[in-house]
Amino acid sequence: MTATPDPATSPAPTTPTRPAAARGRPGFRERLWPGPLGWGGVVAFAAVLAVAFVPVDHLLAIVVGVLTLLGGLAAAVLTTPLVEVERGTLRAGTARIPVRLLAEPRVLDRAALRTELGPALDARAYACLRSWIGTAVRLEVRDPQDPTPYWIVSTRQPDALVAALGGTPAAPPGTTTAGHPEG
Prior knowledge:
Structural class: alpha+beta
């Protein structure tokens, strides 16, 4: 026999249980994995270390090479940050912030990112960056009690992140703000 809860005594849900996409905002999840050069660097380092141990002992060289490779791959996987928008919260690496406290996000291409990280950088800004990813999103923080003025978050999919945050994606190159071709 199964018991059914009494609707008069069961608590009413206080938050919607629908996924973010059903509420009109798509969710977003991206791991900022190293690029091919990063993975190749881990393999190359393991190979060089193994070769360095060949004069000592061939078996030791193989063991050191394999252990270095496994350790390097584990370190790369464990230190790869996650960028995620879920249940009204943006998570970038270890930091989290409610989306409602963020102003309109702005997509940064490689040149704009270089400017933001150079002469325009505020030392109080939060940055979740990976040098091998050339695009990012800048997010102004609207919380007056937060000393962080803005976040800069690396992403390979800036338009998808902007859409998940409720902003308007950047217009494709060669179009005006109305979406019509320039001319």
